[in-house]
């Protein structure tokens, strides 16, 4: 009961803050198609985006399916709190794992700093990695735990919110909500390894990215990114 109450209070506090202190998120709210998706697999429609079955047309890697959009770049040395919000409706006859949102820095061969996956059972987790060299030289990690609630695959509309709190030093805090309930919290810390990849930018990705190709339709409506300002 205490966990539910704290989750509700956090959500209400954040929503109240948003009503009075939001600003346009600049580059994180400017979106385009990512990595040359199959024709028709990513469609901008009235009120949002539709993502559907399509091949990953980027050479290399182990993920065969991709239908994503990508934001413009955000300087890694800029601090600020940014909230990604959308109403999703996933429809699929099969229960396959897929990524639905990520914070990337342009690396190849490893997971990005943050990648939100939906498991076959619908629960979510956040994968992350430190890239320590060429190719697949990676230190894999997980940010936070596994969500208690599930993303459905029967076309039900669900509210997805992701708060990213950039610290201006290459790291960020993370909170994921589903239908108003906190699901995952975690923190990405920049690598201390002198051989690790050091980048100068972050950007967001949204859509479906998966190891296998499967039939689905993901509808994303009212999607936006806003900057959350602190009144204090």
From TrEMBL:
Domain of life of the organism encoding this protein: Bacteria
Keywords recorded for this protein, A-Z: Signal
Signal peptide bounds: 1-25
PROSITE patterns found in the cross-reference section: PROKAR_LIPOPROTEIN
Protein's name according to its UniProt entry: Lipoprotein
Species this protein is from: Pseudooctadecabacter jejudonensis
Classification lineage: Bacteria, Pseudomonadati, Pseudomonadota, Alphaproteobacteria, Rhodobacterales
